Amino acid sequence: MVELMFGLRKNLFAKLKGSKAFRSAYVRETVKQGVAHQIRAMRESRNMKQADLAALSGKSQSNIARLEDPDYGKFTLQTLLEMADAFDVWLSIEFVSFKEGLSRSEDKSVAGLNAKSFSDDDSTWSSKNPNVFTNENSVRPWASRTTFARSSS
């Protein structure tokens, strides 16, 4: 099994290396399918029906079904923000290297796709812990700076 996985990864890397068009198509499909699968995994992990998520998000059940369809892929930023609000999770959209993107997209299990809601994650927060917002593995150099533009008037 390990040899098969190594062979598949090697084949994928060769295709990614060989064609910019393939890389572009691979990213599009992986992101489209990943978002759809994650919405479904988060809904199911919360024991919700599509109608429950529809009520929380202000969308129709058929709209939720479309968002969970891996072939749909027409997500707007506004829709993703509404889903994050309905699930009470953070939405992170960022550009990353192919290596990072491939690594992040590997775990397709429900546990790997599920993001805890704020209240479920609340137990790990502590007002006594001044480093609650610091995770040395994920701090971005630009994340700790705030830049304010000055008006020319």
Please provide a written account of the structure.
With 153 residues, this protein is mostly helical. The protein has eight helices and no strands. It has helices at 2-18, 20-45, 50-57, 61-67, 77-87, 98-104, 110-113, 118-121. Helix 1 (2-18) crosses helix 2 (20-45) and helix 3 packs across helix 4 (61-67). The protein is globular and about 45 Å long. It starts with a helix and ends in a 32-residue tail after the last helix.
Tell me what portion of residues adopts beta-strand conformation.
under 5%
Low-confidence stretches: 141-148
Largest sheet geometry: none
Taking the alpha carbons of the first and last residues, their distance comes to 66 Å
**Shape summary:** globular
Element-level helix/strand string: HHHHHHHH
The number of helices is: 8
Mean pLDDT: 83
Helix/sheet category: mainly alpha
How many runs of DSSP E, i.e. beta strands? 0
If you compute it from the alpha carbons, what radius of gyration comes out, rounded to the nearest whole angstrom? 19 Å
Helix percent reads 40-55%
